[in-house]
Design a protein that fits this description.
Keywords: Acyltransferase, Transferase
Strand content: 15-25%
CATH topology: Glycerol-3-phosphate (1)-acyltransferase
InterPro entries: Plipid/glycerol_acylTrfase (IPR002123)
Largest sheet: 7 strands, mixed
Shape: globular
Organism: Litorilinea aerophila
Order of helices and strands: HEEHEHEHEHEEHH
Radius of gyration: 17 Å
Strand order of the largest sheet: 1-7-6-2-5-3-4
GO molecular function: 1-acylglycerol-3-phosphate O-acyltransferase activity
Protein name: 1-acyl-sn-glycerol-3-phosphate acyltransferase
Number of helices: 7
Number of domains: 1
Structural class: alpha/beta
CATH class: Alpha Beta
Length: 222
Amino acid sequence: MKPPHDATRLWRTLWRVADALVPLYCRLHVAGREHVPATGGCVLACNHTMGPDYFFLAYASPRQVHYMAKAELFQIHPLLSRLLDAAGVFPVRRGQRDQVAIQRAVELVRSGRVLGMFPEGTRSRSGVLQRGRTGVARIALQAGVPVVPAVVIDAEKAMPGHWRPWRRPQVWVRFGPPLVGEGDPGDPAVLQAFTQAVMVAMAGLLPPERQGEYAAQLAAPR
């Protein structure tokens, strides 16, 4: 793989460091990168496990991925704040309807960037897909951009506590075809319907035992 074509200088540097380290920690399999639009804004909607999903998603993406991060990280040290900002990370106040962060996210994707989000909201300890929240749908509909479903599988096995140098674990990153929502982003029914479509698409990229409540919809006749 090559660094994202739209990456900043810092992102390219970080990507090359990751490119040297990833083969030491795991055997990474990436599928569906062609589904990420080469240009224009979009939201990557990814599952959220106990592993570094954000790292593998960003490394595997053909575009630079921007993330929201908890506001507390930006209060640790000014140098860290500048580094996060330079890497395309911006703060969000968790547990609140942070309108400033939401508006920044909308403007980001409207400007043609890629935003990475985790619609489950919290990490799944079991790796089973949890019920999705409507934030991804709201931002995508407000900005008028597609959502690309994505999953990272077994990222937790590459973490220091689990990693064994003589038996590198396998990690998968999968991207699915983009989904385009329609309707009023202020309508709860529209948000729920689009969220459901995104979550079902994500579930379809996961093994059956990790599809959670969305497995029934995937198994139903179409």
